[in-house]
Each structure stands twice: as C-alpha cells, then as structure tokens.
Hints:
By secondary structure, the protein is of the alpha+beta class. It has helices at about 45-65, 70-80, 175-185, 190-205, 240-250, 260-265, 300-310, 320, 330-340, 365-380; strands at about 5-15, 25-30, 35-40, 85, 90, 90-100, 105-110, 115-120, 120-125, 130-135, 135-145, 150-155, 215-220, 225-230, 250-255, 270-275, 285-290, 295, 340-345, 385-390. It contains ten helices and 20 strands. The strands form five sheets. The protein has a six-stranded antiparallel β-sheet. Strands 1-13-12-8-9 form a five-stranded antiparallel β-sheet.
Amino acid sequence: xxxxxxxxxxxxxxxxxxxxxxxxxxxxxxxxxxxxxxxxxxxxxxxxxxxxxxxxxxxxxxxxxxxxxxxxxxxxxxxxxxxxxxxxxxxxxxxxxxxxxxxxxxxxxxxxxxxxxxxxxxxxxxxxxxxxxxxxxxxxxxxxxxxxxxxxxxxxxxxxxxxxxxxxxxxxxxxxxxxxxxxxxxxxxxxxxxxxxxxxxxxxxxxxxxxxxxxxxxxxxxxxxxxxxxxxxxxxxxxxxxxxxxxxxxxxxxxxxxxxxxxxxxxxxxxxxxxxxxxxxxxxxxxxxxxxxxxxxxxxxxxxxxxxxxxxxxxxxxxxxxxxxxxxxxxxxxxxxxxxxxxxxxxxxxxxxxxxxxxxxxxxxxxxxxxxxxxxxxxxxxxxxxxxxx
Length: 390
C-alpha cells in the first residue's frame, strides 16, 4: 500500500448555449496507490462532442481496468480515433494520468494542453518521449512521485479563455501555471483547486464560455488521519472501550456532542471548558478538553458538516462559509475536506432525550442519517472512511 494519498478533483463548464459538456473525465482509483484518470475533449461542443469524449475516456479507462498495458491502450484508442480530413484534427483528444503503486506517474498526452507539474511550488520540467501511432503524435512521460507534487491537466478550453470568441494570449498554459503556483501553499484540496481554476477561466470568458473547459488536479499528499467521536454508546458498559479505541487511533481527535464531551472529559480526568465566544449564530460554540484537538456540539454541528460535504462534491457553493470561519462546523469541515486522507468515525447510538422533543429540527433518526450522508460524501472526495458503531 502506498504511503501517499492521491487527492483528486476536477471541474467542467460547458460551452454557452449547450446542454452537455463536450469534455469528459473518467477516474479509476483502487485507494491503494493505483489510479487512472482520463481527460477527453470531444471535437466541437454539445451532444456529439460529449459522446466522443465519453467513449474515448470509457474505452481507455476500461482497458486499463482490465489490466491491459498502457501502451496497448494508447495504441488501440489512437488507431480507432478518426481524424477530420479537412481540418486534420482528431475527433477527440485525451490526457491519461496513470499512477502505479503510489510511486510513479505515467503521463500520456495527445493534443490536449500540456500537463503542468508543480513540485515544491515550482514548475517542474519533466521529460517527454515522442511516439507516433497512426500518424498521430503522442507524448509519454514517466515521473517518480514526491510528496507535494501537484499535477494540473486541462482541456483546451482553459488556455486562451477570453470574451467574445477572442483568444486571450495573456492566459496561456504558462500563465495558468503561475496562477496555480500562487495557490500551491494555501492548503486547498484538489477539488477546490480545480474549481478555482475553472472559475477563473469562466470569469475570463465573462461567464459565456466559448468552449467547454475542464481542469483536473491531482495532489500527492502524506496520509493524515482524523478520528471523530460522535455520541455516547447505547450501552453504558461500552463507554470506556469506545473511548479507549478512539484515543488508540493515531492522528487528530475530534469530539462532537455535549454528553460525549463530558464523557470524554471524565475519562481523561479533566473538565470541559466552554468557549465564551460565539462565532456563528447558527452553530453552537466550541469547547476545550485537554488532550482533545477539537471539541464541538453534536447533532446541529455535524448536520451542517454533512450539508457542507454534499455541497463540496457538487457545486461547492458553501466554500466561503466554511473555509475561513472558526465555528465548529467550519473547523471540522476544513479538517475532513482539506487535511484528512483517512477518517475514522466512532458513532454512539445512545438516545439523547433532548432529541425526542418533536419541536426540535433534529431527531435521533437524523443522527444516523447525518453519519451515512457524511461518509458517502467523504468517500466521493476520495477519502478512506471507516465507521465504528456502539
């Protein structure tokens, strides 16, 4: 198993006036350091382009998933893809990022903008080998991975993005590299970075994209574990075993819930110190327990985290709400979305009498829904998530 975590994110915008995006991304990730991503760009835009790019990415990713050599997959798809004779351009271009054992990146690039590699915040000029298949020129590269490497792949709708169908010559691949360098050390996850790049392109298009545009980001991160304890156990005799297991896990420890906090404080022979500062009128304030990294209120806070998580894998519209604020939901969200690679959630199923009041917006049944919703969203972010239920 690889010592690295592959943080993956992508975002697309479609040509103005079109219902479908002509770019398509397909990712196969076994969570053990083997990953294949295909970014395909169909000729033109709309339905035909969408079909072409989807077929291209699906064929390549399926062949690789079946264990066929990368070279054979490339040769097959390159031989299959037709070329428009009057314009001498392919019906679909593609970029393949194939990580093996979490140690080595194999890049294959055919007529898409060149993949950018940032290493230690600087543009890294990797070697490219040129090969020819059916009169198509394809570039391949093999790169040994290092912690902190960031790969940025894109369709040709990203460079030269400008208003009114005009080419913006001041926004080329090298300028995109400079833009991403400014974000390299900010700690954003790959999904947020791809969103930010595509949003910048959309801004340059004056929100009327003259082409489909897709950005794909892969960051190589050291694994980081976050453990969350949410609720007391159903059986009182399970209290000590549950807490002992929780603290036996390496990494960051988050305790969520008033009763849970008091239970943990008693186990640690210390006190819960409530915060006097309310940072968000919708979210109860955080507390402090010596020996715990973060202590928050329970159901209301975790429900908000689950809402943020679902939004993060879709439009990321709530990003500004949780990315900088200091309330419990925002602090947990930053830990889980941007820092954590492995997450272990300990869920206690004791019934809280306060949650049985029909006048409240939350209930006991909602608590388990929150955990399942959060787990599903985190896994779609590529996180390794485990549950222990007591």
